[in-house]
Design brief:
The chain is mainly alpha-helical. Helix content is about 55%, strand content about 5%. It has a two-stranded antiparallel sheet with strand order 1-2.
Length: about 130
């Protein structure tokens, strides 16, 4: 158990270190005169990255990471222009398609009801004394 905790802590430090190096590299490239788009370090891109990171950490179980990812993706896609085509025109449709695919492909939760109906017998033996 102790080695698992140490490995988990090492993974967190590695991920945080990579994130800080990437952010520092983007700042360095931007300050060096390279044309880096503003949306790369905006709040919605950070929200998108945080949602994906949370999903990765939880093996993409639950839906908290999905909400962050969808909101971040919608606002990030509004600022991306590829080949003079604004992706913001199709962002809503892409969000619905992604949500539908998630609902279709998410793993099913199987609830076992066999152990929930156990009989519990009352013990009144100490009342007779």
């Amino acid at each position: 158990m102790e080695t698992f905790i140490k490995k988990n802590q090492a993974d967190k430090q590695l991920g945080l270190g990579i994130l800080i190096v990437v952010i520092g590299s983007v700042f360095l490239l931007r300050n060096s005169g390279l044309d880096i788009p503003r949306w790369i370090l905006s709040w919605h891109t950070i929200m998108l990255g945080a949602g994906l990171w949370m999903g990765y950490r939880k093996n993409f179980q639950g839906s908290g990471w999905l909400a962050l990812t969808i909101i971040g993706a919608i606002f990030t896609l509004k600022h991306i222009v590829i080949f003079d085509f604004e992706i913001s025109k199709i962002t809503g449709a892409l969000a619905f398609i992604a949500l539908g695919l998630y609902l279709m492909l998410k793993p099913e939760r199987k609830i076992n009801f066999q152990n929930t109906q156990q009989e519990k017998k009352a013990d009144f033996s100490d009342l007779n004394t």
